[in-house]
Amino acid sequence: QIKSRSYPTTACFAVAGPVANNEVDFTNIDNWPVTRGADLQRQLGIQKVQLINDFSALSEGVVAMEEHGMCKFMDIQKGRDGWMNEKRHKYAPKLVIGAGTGLGECLLIWNGKYYQACPSEGGHVDFGPRNEEQSHILDYLRNKYNSSQGGSPHVSVERLCSGKGIEEIYRYLRHRYPENVHRESDAEFDRAVEKAVVVTEHGKKCLLSASSRGIGILGAKLFSSNGGDVGSSSRKNESLLMQQALELFVAIYGAEVGNAALKFLPFGGIYIGGGIAANLKEYLQLSPTFLSCIRDKGKMGQIVRKMPIKLILSDGVAIRGAETVARRKLQAFLDDI
Predict the structure, then answer these.
(1) CA nearest 62: which of 75, 72, 51, 77?
(2) 44 near 71, Cβ under 8 Å?
(3) Average pLDDT of the segment spanning 255-279
(4) 97, 184, 253, 296: least surrounded by Cβ within 10 Å?
(5) Which residues contact 25 (CB under 8 A, 6 or more apart)?
(6) Per-residue pLDDT tens digits for 289-298
(7) What is the per-residue pLDDT for 95?
(8) Degrees (nearest 5) of the Cα angle 118, 121, 123?
(9) Where do the H-state alpha helices sit in 10-85?
């Protein structure tokens, strides 16, 4: 604000969609008109309204808050130091990626003054299955959505790596393995509005319960600490199918983080955002699936191991990012007066 005014002169809005020429066509909202910054300026009486991609806002916020020691993280991989000189490492690219309502991916590049967010629509690239089970999931989704897509075989990675993706994976598993459906939790899934939450909570409970009894997990298959298989009769009150759905989701998520790492080479760090990963904090600590799928890139796996990977735990990061962009615009406005 300027002291002589009682209302904002500059605003920044983070929006869920690609922004071009300060306009956005919302990705996941049907029949919503194109929103223009210029229109909002007139309607709100604000001299400068800047629209930015929501993941750009998250990315800007991570940098701003980390710089001031205000952002909480959990280390997933510390990365390997010493192979890169300190100056180059300091200004190396960073990547922010996260699953939530959709899958966001944003690169941060040092422009000589600050890290500049470079948004993408990387969540909409083709999903690439890594094993037979994931190939079956791809076929299932192609059959399900083929007619609504005009016959296109495209299935995006976001279709599986998102809250809706968790739902889709569980629907696939109960369709393919009806004999393993846990009736009570399945009924809860059908009743729920936030279906992904049901799968996530039951999956977490299943793994935590297994861990407390000396049972580990490898991929999506449970095994006992003495090497024998775990009988389902001893765990009849647990939804193993939901736990398997969560493991498949985490595997797909980790693989896409690794894919993005190789595309962008973010040696300055990979930051995992979005509400899903933060909610899976304990799960990611117990299950090796996420990190192993990030690293599983053949001979390029050694490159990925050199990148620090952090899970964002703080709230309000995207709001701080939008504020950071608004301050830059305000400063530019004041410099022109």
Answers:
(1) 72
(2) no
(3) 94
(4) 184
(5) 17, 18, 34
(6) 999 999 999 9
(7) 97
(8) 125
(9) 37-44, 54-67
Rounded alpha-carbon distances, angstroms, from residue 259 to 14, 31, 199: 26, 32, 26
Q: How far apart are CA 312 and CA 72, in angstroms?
A: 6
Distance CA 287, CA 284 (A): 5
Rounded CA-CA distance 25/15 in Å is 9
- Give the number of other CB atoms < 10 A from CB of residue 170: 29
User: Taking the model in full, what pTM does it have?
Assistant: 0.87
Backbone conformation region of residue 227, classed left if phi is above 0, alpha if psi is from -120 to 50, else beta? left
Which residue type sits at 5? R
Strand duo 309-312 + 73-77: pairing: antiparallel
Residue type at 143 in one-letter notation? N
Poorest-pLDDT segment among 64-73, 90-99, 258-267: 64-73
Nearest Cα to Cα of residue 49 among 57, 41, 60: 41
